[in-house]
Automatic annotation (TrEMBL):
<keyword id="KW-0414">Isoprene biosynthesis</keyword>
<dbReference type="GO" id="GO:0046872">
    <property type="term" value="F:metal ion binding"/>
</dbReference>
<dbReference type="InterPro" id="IPR033749">
    <property type="entry name" value="Polyprenyl_synt_CS"/>
</dbReference>
<keyword id="KW-0479">Metal-binding</keyword>
<dbReference type="GO" id="GO:0016114">
    <property type="term" value="P:terpenoid biosynthetic process"/>
</dbReference>
<keyword id="KW-0808">Transferase</keyword>
<dbReference type="InterPro" id="IPR000092">
    <property type="entry name" value="Polyprenyl_synt"/>
</dbReference>
<protein>
    <recommendedName>
        <fullName>Probable farnesyl diphosphate synthase</fullName>
    </recommendedName>
</protein>
<dbReference type="InterPro" id="IPR008949">
    <property type="entry name" value="Isoprenoid_synthase_dom_sf"/>
</dbReference>
<dbReference type="InterPro" id="IPR053378">
    <property type="entry name" value="Prenyl_diphosphate_synthase"/>
</dbReference>
<dbReference type="Pfam" id="PF00348">
    <property type="entry name" value="polyprenyl_synt"/>
</dbReference>
<keyword id="KW-0460">Magnesium</keyword>
<comment type="similarity">
    <text>Belongs to the FPP/GGPP synthase family.</text>
</comment>
<dbReference type="GO" id="GO:0004659">
    <property type="term" value="F:prenyltransferase activity"/>
</dbReference>
<dbReference type="GO" id="GO:0005737">
    <property type="term" value="C:cytoplasm"/>
</dbReference>
Amino acid sequence: MTDAVAQEFQTRLSYVADATERMLDQLLSERALPGETFRPAAFLGAMRYASLGGGKRLRPFLLIETARLFGIENEGVLRAGAALEMIHCYSLVHDDLPALDNDDLRRGRPTTHKAYDEATAILVGDALLTYAFDVTADPATDADPAIRAELVLALARAAGIGNMVGGQVMDLEAETSTEPHSAEDVIRLQSMKTGALLHYAVEAGAIFARADARAKAALSHYGKALGAAFQVADDILDVEADEEALGKRAGKDAGRNKATLVAALGLKAARKRRDALAQEAIAALSSFPDEKAAILKEAARFAVARKN
């Protein structure tokens, strides 16, 4: 891939991160919406702490760039991307709690329950999750109620018991298992806990674009492969990266008997699978014109080459 495409990818990633930040800032304002009574200012500050000022915003990026693949660029797509980021941020807030991963550091600063308290962190996660569906279902996101309903259903399926939450449950169960974690079990767990929201991002972009069945199938393949590659890369970073680069505690997976592909396959095989999945994601976009799909292809390379 040319340096020009890599540079354009970084420019687009930065642009979407900034646009998502602005949209989250707007959505998380003190102004109550029709039907709301009042927004407690101190609690809203905790929601903003958990959501603003950090992260790659890769999930909104994938949603926005997938819609852009079909020439769709509007505020509704950005709203859906911000809603997806709220789901991601809620999951991080809850994952960091003492009852789950018990982490003190996230994105280089204290986790929400450390900056505030555990009760506030639980409620922040609850509020972000609920608000994400509010934003997605709002007519401002898309005038067509059928499109909004499709988005809401897909997001609920990605974030719920059969995917992200269920994957977190399986992750906790794995920590107390006395049996070695099989690669098959780890792959399923990771496709649920991490891969599902990344896949939804791509799926949602296709929904906005009213893409046909063939295009949706190709993008679904891309999203699943990219999501899997992203999580294997995370497993490897936990072993290889330092805490300053990660912005969170490093080396925690092995110490807690986490179900990772590094543990199941070994580091060399995990690297090989990571790279193969990135190539699979890129190949899944072969039916799209190169000049249109170049940024999404570069996103797959970025997912496995990143340092945090």
